[in-house]
Amino acid sequence: MRGSAKGIVALVGIAGIGLVAGLGLTLMADREDPPLLAWNDAETVARGHLLYDDQCAACHGGLGPDPTPPSVSNPDLVAPPHDETGHSWQHPDYALFELTRSGEVAELCLTGAEEGGMPQFGDTLDDRQILDVLAYIKSTWPEATREHQDGVNAMYAAQNDAVRSLVGDAGH
Q1: How far is CA 163 from CA 49, 101, 109, 123, in A?
Q2: How many CA atoms lie within 13 A of 84 on its CB side?
Q3: Cβ neighbours for 43, distance < 8 A, ≥ 6 positions apart
Q4: pTM for the structure as a whole
Q5: b/e per residue, 144-162, with b = 16+ CB within 10 A?
Q6: What is the enclosing helix (H) or strand (E) of 143?
Q7: Widest CA span in the chain
Q8: Could you read off the pLDDT of 2-55 as tens digits, one per residue?
């Protein structure tokens, strides 16, 4: 082949690679990642409900149509509710996951549970179980509350994506 013919073949090849790469990126951009918390998945929510009742309700109170108050006898261990009257929905999903896993809460979130503090559920629950509990909590919020929290999540999409990458398919 002559020099100019080789150049044309190389340009066509490069253009073809660019077209395929561009098409792939476009398709990937159109694909929507699932939310970190699968609050609308019945199996996830059912698993999370059982875990919440067992691990969380004593301090935070029950959730759902007929919520129960916290059952701990020490009032210093009563923690904020996870319904729309609490403030969980004001945090992005990734932060709820990390707070639950580590037990570390910011000073502004403390409401009397300073004595015992939030347990480090990363010691007793695996990542999937933590995500299941949080999905259950989110499933109990009114639609307007979920929509507000989705707006918060939009501001922290990169952090939610990073946690999703770290935990893999744990939540789905």
Answers
A1: 22, 12, 22, 18
A2: 12
A3: none
A4: 0.74
A5: ebbeebeeebeebeebbee
A6: helix 143-155
A7: 89
A8: 556 555 654 555 555 544 455 554 444 454 677 899 999 999 999 999 999 999
